[in-house]
Design a protein that fits this description.
The complex is a heterodimer of chains A (116) and B (115). With 116 residues, chain A is mainly beta. Helix content of chain A is 0%, strand content 49%. In chain B, strands 2, 4, 5, 6, 9, 10 and 11 form a 7-stranded mixed β-sheet that branches. Chain B has a 4-stranded antiparallel β-sheet with strand order 1-3-8-7, with no helix packed on it.
């Protein structure tokens, strides 16, 4: 069974607008961590934001925030005030006890394009 | 500068010719891992290592070998490459694992083509 699901292969957003990238996950363990990474066209992978399963508040890092809905098993990334440099692939990932927290599962990614 | 380096960055080889992709990190990280990235499949974990001489299989280990003789290095070995191993490979490291924000630092990637 797929552990991480990203259902939006591609998204467009107008510059300066906000955009939400969806991520749902599947685990039966109560302790897990969720990550978002960005991959620009240059290819490198950049860590953006982390949410732990016991965190009471949604994670925020600058213009990035996580809409964490535990009961729905979703961890959507919200990018506010989109910039042209936000155009990239975005990957959701999870680390959970099933692999001793050493296995990391990634989704297939969402390609975001910011339109001027 | 804290970084993960991989070499080579690009490699074109032929079926069956053994190759090694090197990975090195200068952050004294405990954990290292290899991934392959394929269109439509995202990143899939090949092998990971929690410490020197401790390695374990990820989700797609077939056709690959790794070793961790030193903390900083984690080479990926393809003993007999096949065309289905054509992919973009990433090495990553993190300070640890467990329940916490142990984000991974990624190398620049190695684009491998096997003909």
């Amino acid at each position: 069974a797929q552990k991480i699901t990203q259902t939006q292969p591609g998204m467009f957003v107008q510059e300066k607008e906000a955009v939400t990238l969806d991520c749902t996950y599947d685990t039966s363990d109560p302790s897990y961590g969720l990550f978002w990474y960005k991959q620009p066209s240059s290819g490198e992978m950049i860590f953006l934001i982390y949410q732990g399963s016991y965190d009471q508040q949604n994670a925020t890092e600058g213009r990035y925030s996580l809409n964490f809905q535990k009961a729905r098993k979703s961890a959507n990334l919200v990018i506010s005030a989109s910039q042209l440099g936000d155009s990239a692939m975005y990957f959701c990932a999870m680390r959970d006890p099933s692999g001793g927290y050493q296995k990391v599962t990634f989704g297939i990614g969402t390609k975001l394009q910011v339109i001027p | 500068e804290a970084q993960v380096t991989q070499n080579p960055r690009y490699l074109i080889t032929v079926t069956g010719k053994k190759l090694t992709v090197t990975c090195s990190q200068n952050m004294n990280h405990e954990y290292m891992s290899w991934y392959r990235q394929d269109p439509g499949l995202g990143l899939r974990q090949i092998y990971y290592s929690m410490n020197v001489e401790v390695t374990d299989k990820g989700d797609v280990p077939e056709g690959y070998k790794v070793s961790r003789k030193e903390k900083r290095n984690f080479p990926l070995i393809l003993e007999s490459p096949s065309p289905n191993q054509t992919s973009l490979y990433f090495c990553a490291s993190s300070a640890g694992t467990g329940f916490g924000v142990y984000e991974q630092y990624f190398g620049p990637g190695t684009r491998l083509t096997v003909t």
